[in-house]
User: What shape does this take?
Amino acid sequence: MIAALLRIALLAALTVLPRPGEAHSLGLSQLRVTETAPARFTIAWLPSEELRQRGIDARLRFPDSCRYAPPTLSCTQPIEGAIEIEQLPSHAQVIVRWQDLRGTRHYEALPPDRRIAFAAFGDPAAATGSAWSYVGIGVEHILLGIDHLAFVASLVLLIGLTRRLVWAITAFTLSHSLTLGLSSLGVLTLPAAPVETLIAASIVLVAREALVERETLARRFPWLIAFVFGLIHGLGFAGALRETGLPEDQALWALLAFNVGVELGQLAVVLLLAAALRLARGGGALAVARPLTAYAIGALAMFWTLQRGSSMLL
Assistant: This one.
């Protein structure tokens, strides 16, 4: 029966992940709009490494009243309409950086409709709220980062709905916040490929421990396992910020906002998993659902581990 479950889970993994790297989001891209004169701008579109690797060619579209001769955009006043990014996947994350004539930089997340109106440029509220737009980026990153969610789910399966789960999640939060901050600020940097491979391997280990009945180190001290692996996951979170960077004048606030978003998304997932476990327990299905879920997560994580590990050899 175990072998059959593994085959089913691996088949599901291959179906969900037909291409390398799709376990993660598409990284952070950046659109830079620099005002060089009234109604005149320099435009720079900086796609993330993930978008470039997948050959996704997003296109910029400007209002009819503007003339674009790369990299210069010249418009008639008053400027109406919006800059739109076409052929961009709905879950791709983009930060818009606008710099006005005074040199003040404003940062905000690209709205879901993939367009930003010129009326929004120069909004005084943007300067104070730009860093906190990273909260949404953090929430989106954790919800799209299937591997990070798989690790959290494995912790819940390992520990169950006990007070020890609170301590483990807290330890995971503290450790990944530490390496996220150090890496994003350039104090600690490691190549992405081994980090991503270790993240996948950490899921395999915790999912395996969730299936073991005897008292192992992970079962006795789950907070320790969560803390150690959280250090690695924090480096993975930092990868979402490394290419685009942080607002120069609000780096610490933006980093804090991103981390707050990650924690909010993580908390939402833990609460949903807790509710699902309670429902399964009430219906008597927990005995079947728990090992089946652990096998599925473990098989999927093993696929990621082999996939990412092999990419380092190519």
The longest strand covers residues 28-37.
